[in-house]
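Supplementary Text 2. Reproducibility record for the structural model of the 177-residue chain.

All settings were left at their defaults, and a single model was retained for analysis rather than an ensemble. We include the record here because the model underlies the residue-level annotations in Supplementary Table 4.
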Amino acid sequence: MEMIQKCLTLLVFSVLVGCASLLLSTDSVLAQPCQIEVVKNADPADNTPFEFTRITTGDERDFTLMDPDDQAMMVGVSIGQSTITETVPDGWAVGSIECVVEPDSESVLSFSTIGSTVNVTCLGFTPSQDQGRGTCTFNNVLAARNVPTLSQWGLIAMVILLGVIGFIAFRRRSATT
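Retained model, structure tokens:
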């Protein structure tokens, strides 16, 4: 009986330690003083995977978003400067990045964008709420494909060349009849 009690105690202890380590190993979004919802809008929305990297106090985390199936993710950032960077896939371009700070968070959270990177400044908690909160929407468009065209002088030369070829073909046909 004593052996069964020791085994049960050991089992309960291992389950508790496992649960605690699972909680500590997650991204701990709720433990961060600022939370940013990253949203992906792609035109066309064809489930292309868009890779993101969040760097906060030296901790680098990668995540992937796809429009429309897996379009948003909440990420936590620490006090200080952090970045959220999108790696734009080939054939796509960043249309715009729109970041909005929720009301009551203006004093603790701010954004600035450079290219496909959002710089996040988190100053901590506000008295009226637990965390600074905001949303950053990354809008991407399918890049226009370069279609080869002729310049003005190239077009003039092409018209003259086709005119000469047409004239020669017309003369040969007239000569054979």
